[in-house]
Each structure stands twice: as C-alpha cells, then as structure tokens.
C-alpha cells in the first residue's frame, strides 16, 4: 500500500514519504513540528530549557556536577534528590544543546495531544517526571554500583514513546499495532547505532566521549509508550496543526 504523493502526510500516526515508503520516528523533518514552538504547545519545552540553563550555571559556578548525578553510590550516601535532580542537569553545554534539539519539538508534539492550559502542563509534568524516573530505575537496575547518570535523555525518550502512540485522528494506536512496532524498531535501531558510534570513539581514545545510558532511554521510552493514553485527556483537543 502506498500513500499518494499529492496528499500531505499526517503529522501523527503512520506516515509515508512522497515515494510511498513508510516513515518512522518523530516528524522532525516536518516544518509544522517546528512551527509548533511558536504556539502554546511549545512553551513547556522552552520553560524546561530555561531551567536546564539555570541548573547548568549552578553546576558550573556553585555546586559542581556531583550534587546532580544519579548513581547507587549517591543514593546510598543520602542523595535522595538525585532521581529527580539528574533530569534537569547536564554534563556540559554541548550535552544540553544536544538534548534540547529533541526536547523542544517532542514537547510541542506531545502538548498537541495533552491539551492547553494548566491541565496540559500538569499532564506534561507527570509524563516528563514519570518517564525520567522509569529510565532512572532501569538504569540503576542494570548499574547498581556502576557509573553515574546525568541528563534529561530518559525523559526525552519518554516523550518519543508518547508520540509513538498518537494516531492522525488523535486517538491512540494499540501496542500491537504496526505503527507502534515501527516506532519500537526505529528506537532500538537508533540506540544501537548511537551505542556503536560511542563505543568506537571510546576505543579510538577520545577521552572527551562519555557513555550512553541506553537503559535510561529504554525505561523512559517504555513509560511514554505505556502511559500516554492514561495521561492524555480522553477526547483529543482541537487540532492545532
């Protein structure tokens, strides 16, 4: 089955390019996604970006990064705040900017379905924190005494998981649907490629390259995939794209 080239593909759901090929992954290539940043749907992402910048300044000039990282060692020594704190901290400006390029469009896409106003913001906060904590839990399960975790990527992958469930009409695709299967496959492929690239760079002796917390990515993605239908309003808000 192919998608007619003359028909503009939907922003959500199963999409096809002009050659009739299925497309997976968030629609970052679509200009409509980036136009959402100038709408109310983009505000939570921009607010988070401001918080990230302020936290990075505090890390750099006041506390150092150790206060913000999550690890089994940190929890054992009273770092009860670490499961939440690490979601707003980053290893440096480059890490922050890299995450921002995914955070901003994904937040706007999710907010289209979560709805505007205070209720939409509350739903988004639950999604972001829930995905981040799920990612942290899976990371600690695999690394109880291992390296530390810092950054918002677990929560960001949770936003991708949430977007993966949204259909073109605003309803939610079943977990066993082709749409969700395509997104899960693309998520796994992307993480495998990133892991391979980072592994190769580390083996080449680039001391400036850190590891990749695929466990946090997976935990966050699964949370968004599973809980987005429960967090979103039952009736889709009026279309904004």
Automatic annotation (TrEMBL):
GO terms for cellular component: membrane. The chain crosses the membrane at residues 41-62, 94-112, 124-142, 148-163, 184-202, 214-232. It is found in: Membrane. Its main location: membrane. It is a multi-pass membrane protein. The keyword Transmembrane helix applies. Residues 80-229 form the Peptidase S54 rhomboid domain. One of its GO terms (molecular function) is serine-type endopeptidase activity. This is Rhomboid family protein. Belongs to the peptidase S54 family. Keywords: Hydrolase, Membrane, Transmembrane, Transmembrane helix. Gene3D superfamilies: Rhomboid-like.
